[in-house]
Specification:
This protein is of the alpha/beta class. About 50% of the residues lie in helices and about 10% in strands. It has a four-stranded parallel β-sheet with strand order 2-1-3-4, sandwiched between helices.
């Protein structure tokens, strides 16, 4: 693998909630985090940014049961799972499944609190890159 390539992360974050304002806030927060990481050279995929746009534009069904297959495909092969610990994250069925899947498939997991330091997060991501992008050959 090319050690100069960036690692690609997957952001797991809660979304569903009975209150629309909570859903909108969660979407905004995860999109802002994804944008900041991407702008700093740390590409990520976010199923919330992707799936919610499709749901809103097409009236597709929401909920983990409808998006689990796609989200699992997106997560498989990612270099790390970024668990965005927004309010309600522990109760999220989707996030619990994504964490379990990552543990079962040896995908490193990084936890990030919404009030956490982005600089500390970047340090953790760089540490993952060092572990997984070992030079091949001599």
């Amino acid at each position: 693998m090319n050690s100069k390539l960036p690692v690609l992360g997957y952001i797991a974050s809660p979304y569903n909630h009975r209150c629309e304002n909570t859903r909108l806030l969660r979407k905004k927060l995860v999109i802002n985090l994804a944008a900041e990481l991407i702008q700093k050279g740390y590409p990520v995929v976010s199923p919330i940014a992707h799936n919610v746009t499709i749901i809103n534009e097409t009236n597709a069904q929401s909920g983990w049961q409808h998006w689990q297959q796609l989200d699992t495909v997106l997560l498989y092969g990612r270099d790390y799972l970024l668990v965005y610990k927004l309010d309600g994250w522990k109760a999220s069925v989707g996030m619990s499944s994504e964490i379990f899947f990552s543990e079962q498939n040896d995908i490193p997991i990084v936890y990030f609190d919404e009030n956490g330091s982005i600089e500390q997060l970047l340090i953790e991501i760089r540490q993952i890159k060092k572990r997984i992008r070992l030079p091949v050959g001599g």
